């Protein structure tokens, strides 16, 4: 992964964590209280981009606390989206019969 790509990933990751925390109605303090050994200031540093070195265990525990699978957060941070079918892709009537 190139530095520019990893910078993009970290930026998206921090934004997603903040958005999902807010969406589930938790403050930084409430989230920190649910993750063992984590303080509100660490959540603030993560969300503002002042902390790029977050362990996978901490990310997993944050994801559990905000009710979102870590794999989903990572996938979204990478920019991956499930391919959506076009309306006509399931319409077999469009196929010619031979």
Overview of the molecule:
The chain is an all-alpha fold and 98 residues long. 57% of the residues lie in helices and 0% in strands. The protein has helices at residues 3-23, 28-34, 40-48, 56-65, 70-78. Helix 1 (3-23) packs across helix 5 (70-78) and helix 2 (28-34) crosses helix 3. The longest helix is centred in the first third of the chain and has 21 residues, at 3-23. The radius of gyration is 19 Å and the shape is globular. It starts with a helix and ends in a 20-residue tail after the last helix.
Topology:
Blueprint: H1 3-23, H2 28-34, H3 40-48, H4 56-65, H5 70-78
Helix pairs in contact: 1-5, 2-3
Number of strands: 0
Main sheet makeup: none
Order of helices and strands: HHHHH
Distance between the termini: 49 Å
Number of helices: 5
Which strand-content bin applies to the residues?
under 5%
Mean pLDDT: 82
Q: What structural class results from the helix and strand content?
A: mainly alpha
Unreliable parts = 81-98
Shape: globular
**Considering DSSP H and I runs of 4 or more, what fraction of the residues is helical?**
55-70%
Radius of gyration: 19 Å
In short:
The chain is mainly alpha-helical. It contains 5 helices and no strands.
Notable features of this structure?
98 residues, 0% strand, 5 helices, disordered C terminus, mainly alpha
């Amino acid at each position: 992964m190139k530095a520019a790509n990893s910078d993009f990933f970290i930026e998206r990751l921090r934004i997603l964590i903040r958005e999902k925390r807010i969406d589930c109605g938790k403050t930084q303090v409430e989230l920190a209280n649910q993750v063992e050994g984590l303080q509100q200031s660490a959540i603030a540093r993560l969300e503002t981009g002042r902390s790029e070195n977050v362990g996978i265990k901490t990310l997993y525990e944050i994801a559990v606390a905000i009710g979102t699978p870590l794999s989903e957060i990572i996938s979204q941070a990478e920019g991956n989206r499930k391919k959506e079918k076009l309306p006509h892709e399931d319409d077999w009537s469009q196929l010619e019969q031979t």
